[in-house]
Design brief:
alpha+beta, 42% helix, globular
């Protein structure tokens, strides 16, 4: 599989999904950017994620499996990716770089969605959301299983690291979560 799996039950439970995420990410980078990437460590992480600086693209999924996929990379790497994707030079983050980041996130999560649909039936994707900033926090619903996959691209001084984070909620867990939210809301009104 090409990943160093951390020894916990959540990661082992999702070995197939991890493989699909890795394959979808490698395929998008090879096909759309003509870049080879290497898969790194995989870990389960339920903590709030703190990003020191960079760009995060988030895409939601809904269906038999619901959740989200996020790509996180530095601003410098985002400019490099946009330059390859749009065949123009980008040295600073602008609307084109953010649009390219959104589209790359959409393609990677869309690739995962295609694999998941084979097992769980039709699914939909949300419109991508891109966050660019310094010292921001992200958090996903505590009911989902959150996997963080590390990747590298390039060698030596040109090497860049990025992550793909996937949070998944099965239909059963999703139904329970939605029922809990509905009951909570009913108590408020």
């Amino acid at each position: 599989m090409g990943a160093e799996l951390m020894g916990n039950d959540i990661v082992k439970q999702y070995e197939t999904v991890i493989h699909w995420v890795q394959e979808a990410t490698k395929q998008v980078f090879a096909t759309m950017l003509d870049l080879e990437i290497k898969c790194g460590a995989v870990r389960s992480d339920h903590r709030t994620s703190v990003q020191s600086a960079g760009i995060m693209t988030m895409v939601g999924m809904a269906g038999g499996v619901s959740g989200s996929g996020c790509l996180c990379f530095s601003k410098r790497f985002a400019c490099r990716l946009a330059s390859r994707f749009l065949m123009s030079e980008y040295r600073e983050v602008d609307d084109d770089v953010l649009d390219a980041a959104a589209e790359l996130g959409n393609m990677v999560v869309g690739g995962l969605k295609t694999f998941l649909e084979e097992k769980s039936g039709p699914m939909g994707l949300s419109v991508p959301t891109v966050v660019c900033g310094e010292n921001y926090l992200t958090r996903t619903a505590p009911t989902g299983d959150r996997l963080v996959l590390d990747f590298t691209c390039g060698e030596g001084a040109e090497q860049e690291r990025f992550t793909v984070t996937v949070c998944l909620i099965t239909e059963r867990k999703n139904r329970n979560y939605l029922n809990e939210m509905a009951e909570f809301h009913a108590r408020l009104v």
